[in-house]
Amino acid sequence: MLTSQRKQHLLSVLQRDGQIVAKRLSQELGLSEDTIRRDLRELAAEGLVQRVHGGALPASPAVVDFTARQELASEAKVAIGRAAARLVQPGQVVILDGGTTAVQVARHLSPELRATVVTHSPTIAMELVPHPGIEVLLIGGRLFKHSVVAVGAVTIEAIGHVRADTYFMGVTGVHVQEGLSTGDLEEAYVKRALSSRAAETIVLASSEKLGVASRYVIAPLTEISGLVVEHDVPEEVTNRYQELGLSITRA
């Protein structure tokens, strides 16, 4: 089997099974595990898979910069943002992550709502400037331009002084076994810190983020409370998350 044929077969297996187990595949194809791993390394370099211990998972298509993400599944993100905004109650302190889906949450908060939003995203803060009843606490730090959020030691230190009701988290990957992930290490640390300061964490998860993984782990799914997903995500997909005790809000 030619290299190109092997790679195409690997991608077909990934699409069919949702994962690649290198040992099992090497036995099925009569090839060495080293050959499979080499192919996976090359596919990962092309952004087509995310390597994990023992094999690979689908790579998240959401690991692109902020501008590009604005064009990715935009209708779904509007719906998810609207549904998440309805979960915010008067008087609450909520943490709102950076990212294009979080922007939609900010845009859909009720004009009558009086609450406090904590964010490390200048974009989110600017969205909320016209809102008459929202007090905005903007956390500073080094600006990570890729996602337009603050990161670093200064950011994590400031987060430690916050106690919130709910954190609406943005991610690039949600996977039953591999948990929550994102494409930058510092972002992963900041998201984990934010989650630790909220009574509950709700993940904003458009369909391209479900069942995929990115390079840096934020937390296992057992550390969050629920997901906000598109209305037409199949039940066989959401059931796997509900079995872990997560609430599912359909947009």
From TrEMBL:
InterPro entries with a match to the protein in the record: Carb_Metab_HTH_regulators, DeoR-like_C, DeoR_HTH, NagB/RpiA_transferase-like, Tscrpt_reg_HTH_DeoR_CS, WH-like_DNA-bd_sf, WH_DNA-bd_sf
Domain HTH deoR-type, residue spans: 3-58
Organism in which the protein naturally occurs: Deinococcus oregonensis
UniProt keyword list: DNA-binding, Repressor, Transcription, Transcription regulation
Matching Gene3D superfamilies: 3.40.50.1360, Winged helix-like DNA-binding domain superfamily/Winged helix DNA-binding domain
Any one GO molecular-function label of the UniProt entry: DNA binding
Pfam families for the chain: DeoRC, HTH_DeoR
Domain of life, source organism: Bacteria
Coiled-coil region(s): none
Listed name of the protein: DeoR/GlpR family DNA-binding transcription regulator
